[in-house]
């Protein structure tokens, strides 16, 4: 009997211990010295909160209450003692207004080697307008910093976050697995340089849902080594559209495969759905891509494959793209083009595009049929296709 009671007590203690481990530890940055005035440097408070959360054996929450918090460059490193750290942000994290402070560091906020991190809500204000003005004046300016980066990290969730006026890219996912971004908003001027909304590369299992992008570069850019990417219910504009590429900048380069982009609206963008590759040798490739249910509203280049990308005519004139583009489907694409050529497939003469499929595409230009242009592209069309397919 005594032995039975002893076993019962031990079991209760273990259950209590396990239950206590399941209750998240919460670290409020105000309690750690942060000031919500937008002027006092709160970087150390954020770093202290991360150190405590990362070192906790149980799930942890870092809470940022309402207010504006000045934050310098922060590098959040893993691995951590737990795989469930949540940043719950009800306030705004503000970058230094002097763009020289972050201009050469690469990233404002960087997560590296973490597993199971969630960012929920909040605003990240990159204060990039000063750097944009510097670049527009042709002065010697810093490159600028990415607002939020995840490198070599897994099982990441970014939900309800707003990225405002990033100096350079807003969000970068690099070398990651299983990343979900939902309800993300990206806001920057349509003339802001190199302010891609979300850039994905060398990553698999990335999902982007119910998000809105207004920026000066690609709403989403998809770099080498991206696989199993799903983008759905996205609004883009102003911006340069959704781009696979640029690819083929390097001779040895990983390919892009299994990409689905569906239920997307483009408003006044430079491009709609684009694939672009440098006009020079490369081992890169694009295959297994579906563009589906897209609405184009006054888009300059609604559908484009450009394998002769050569900015400033440097290091590529007269060369031919080695990137192989195959098995790309455009299905249920409708709307208006701001230029006469609404569909342009400008593929490599040495590596022609193959398996290009147009299904139920209707694009008009000034209430008239638009035009299509093909070079070194092969494929098929079905259903109603306007402009008339040149494949």
From TrEMBL:
UniProt keyword annotation of Lyase present: no
InterPro entries: Glyco_hydro_28, PbH1, Pectin_lyas_fold, Pectin_lyase_fold/virulence
GO molecular function: polygalacturonase activity
Hydrolase is among the record's keywords: yes
Lineage of the organism: Eukaryota, Viridiplantae, Streptophyta, Embryophyta, Tracheophyta
Organism encoding this protein: Escallonia herrerae
Biological process according to GO: carbohydrate metabolic process; cell wall organization
Family to which the UniProt record says this protein belongs: Belongs to the glycosyl hydrolase 28 family.
Residues of the active site: 240
SUPFAM superfamilies (alphabetical): Pectin lyase-like (SSF51126)
Protein name per the record: Polygalacturonase
Signal peptide, first to last residue: 1-22
PANTHER family: PTHR31375
Cellular localisation: Secreted, Cell wall
Gene3D superfamilies recorded: Single-stranded right-handed beta-helix, Pectin lyase-like
Keywords of this entry: Cell wall, Cell wall biogenesis/degradation, Glycosidase, Hydrolase, Secreted, Signal
